[in-house]
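New to this. Please check this fold:
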Amino acid sequence: MLGRRLPKNKKFTLQYKYYDPEKEEKKHRKIRFTQMRSKKTARKKSIIWMLILLVFIVYLIYFFIKIAR
């Protein structure tokens, strides 16, 4: 038992039957494009919400100042 070697894993190559590299690249390119577009729209939405929040805060300050008089 001490002098025996353990069997090693056999190496093999797997040939894909339905793999098309060009089609795969197109799919990844499309995914990257949609991710970039969604990031840009998210930034625009966040800027719009920040502006709305700023206007609301200014309105509240104006409203409370008017009540205090």
User: Anything to note?
Assistant: The chain is about 70% helix and 0% strand.
